[in-house]
Amino acid sequence: MNEILAWEIFPKQDSIPADGFGNLIKLPMQVHQKSGKRSHFVDKEFQEIFPEQFETISKEHFPDVVQYDSPKPHPLNSDSEYEETTSTPPHNMEMMFQQCKVLRDTERGDSLTHKQRLFLGSQLKPFGEDGRKKLHSILSPIEHYDENITNTQWNSIDAAPQTCALMCKNALCANIAMAGGRSPIKFGYQKRLYPFIEKATSAYAYYDRIEQSLQLNVPKEILARILSSYGQEMPEYMPVLKVDFDVQNNLKIDEANHRFNFFTPTEYLVLEKNTEIILLESECLHITLLLKNLIPLEEEREHFLNWLAGIMQTRKKQLTA
């Protein structure tokens, strides 16, 4: 970017708290609400200058001044969820939407914030023309939709897909934790059925990522037919995995360590620890009433809740009865 031009985008916030301030803009030539005087352009010495004194830039010369480069293919960086190479685009848009609640919510036809639109576009961009069509199908029912503006914004996307942390912060879902990813685009590279050979029995098996179900001891011919019914083929290389139950690990399929984890974490188990205090009687009324009925004594009830909390927080057996 040429140093003689600087760019700044306003507004900088999606919303402003009732008692907060945004980035105010003082526009030149506007009337001051209190003094009634007009503001002016000023030079570096804060002396008034007028528009006719500015040197104009011709349309032909503008690209040379800006040194504009057309958007490049999505670069790999530390925030990217692309596979090791971008030569093969993602292929499973349906899987990505099924596994990500944030993306599913964009399909409800409700108005989307600017932040939601950017997140949606960044996930769909790697799918190319199919992704662009999907974006239009989601945005077109929304009020104030403009096809040309949407295409312009689509063409301006040149960064890697945004990560889940941008939308969900520390509340990442169990699906992305089990996939070992950081962005919904991870699901776009996955196939629904994951076939493998179970190590203990040397039998064929497959895992359904949508239904989160594992099928063991499947005959090879039957497995081939099942894969074919979902548009998949028998892979030339079939990973050999040991089926395990490891509550300390969120990863479902660990090819590096040749493990398939039968354990499925809940949404609560993958949350980061915090210091939030929950008032059970107001936030979990029905559960509190049930506990009071089952465990009438408050001291015993508190002991039970602390015992249960210890299990949930550490995922370990407690050394108390």
Average pLDDT across residues?
84
Shape: flat
Biggest pleated sheet = 6 strands, mixed
Number of strands: 8
Walkthrough of the structure:
The longest helix has 17 residues, at 298-314. The chain has helices spanning 62-66, 93-99, 101-105, 114-124, 129-139, 147-156, 165-168, 174-179, 185-188, 220-229, 280-283, 285-294, 298-314, and strands spanning 41-42, 48-49, 193-198, 203-208, 213-215, 240-244, 253-254, 259-261. Helix content is 32%, strand content 9%. Among the domains are: 93-185, no CATH class; 191-261, no CATH class; 280-314, no CATH class. It has 13 helices and eight strands. By secondary structure, it is of the alpha/beta class. It starts with 40 loop residues before the first strand and ends in a 7-residue tail after the last helix.
Short structural description:
With 321 residues, this protein is α/β, with parallel strands linked by helices.
Q: What are the main properties of this structure?
A:
two-stranded antiparallel sheet, 321 residues, alpha/beta, 8 strands, six-stranded mixed β-sheet, 13 helices
